[in-house]
Amino acid sequence: MEEKWNEKKRHILFAAMKLFAANGYVQTTMQEIAEACKMSKGSVYQQFSSKEALLLDIFKFFFKRLNDGMQLVERERQLGPRERLERKILVCLRLWIEYPEFFTMQMRENGGFVNQEIRDYLKWMDTEISMFFMDSLVGIYGDSYAPYAPEGVLLLSSLLSTYMGLQLVEKITLVPDEVCSHILHIVDAVAERVLREMPRPLLNESNWPRLKEVCARNAKSAHPLLLVKRCRERLERLSEGEERNEALESLTVLEQELVEIRPRKVIVLGMLANLKRSPELADLLAELEAACQQAGLVRV
């Protein structure tokens, strides 16, 4: 998507973001945006058909930057679940520090955009961001935490937004690494108590319909490599032993094969057979086998 943002478009986009943050989206006119860019209003309309289209591209630009950062974290295979979540939180914090006008703009409008396409995109973006964090939380605290993961995401994202808001509104200075560490300390404390007491989750698909969409998207997006990562995270929580180490070796071979352009069926099937010796992986292994077939990563 970024290739569509030529220099002129980016110039208009950043100028508009600053004006929306300072004056509000509704109050800002295309004429004011043109004057800020030192160009004619006609030139602005050549790049964006309307103020709504311009605002939508601001959100798309920001999400592209966020998604790029998250994908870089996912590619760092040596990271454990906790380190991965720390990096994801830092991606958000540093992006908001780099583009404070974007966060200020959202705070000013408070989600009150009337354009349906923009509201739909914001809803989709929120779902994607939830998925970035949900899998990491389950990876840290285990499968028994899964029913509480949506509320864990709400807690984490609320803390992120609050601390960023304090920096922008109250003009306080917070160090991203310290914010990240403190947020995880709070999330840890809540998760520990939740797992100890196992209360009934407050949120469910009945009282929060979008939760069903988030969970469905998460299930559909279970790429074989993601499932391999989940298997490894589960095994790493077990005690040292020969069977555990053999299973981890099989996962390493399987992962290396799955990134090949044409994975070899005999290798993939052999590693899957090896992993069946680990009963702790039974549910994930069933998903992994189905995902390999669905994604066409194994030649028939």
UniProtKB/TrEMBL annotation:
Limits of the HTH tetR-type domain: 6-66
Keyword DNA-binding part of the UniProt annotation: yes
GO MF assignments: DNA binding
GO biological process, one term: regulation of DNA-templated transcription
Record keywords: DNA-binding
Keyword DNA-binding part of the UniProt annotation: yes
DNA-binding region: 29-48
Domain of life (superkingdom): Bacteria
Signal sequence, start to end: none
Designated name of the protein: TetR/AcrR family transcriptional regulator
Organism, as annotated: Paenibacillus elgii
Lineage, broadest ranks: Bacteria, Bacillati, Bacillota, Bacilli, Bacillales
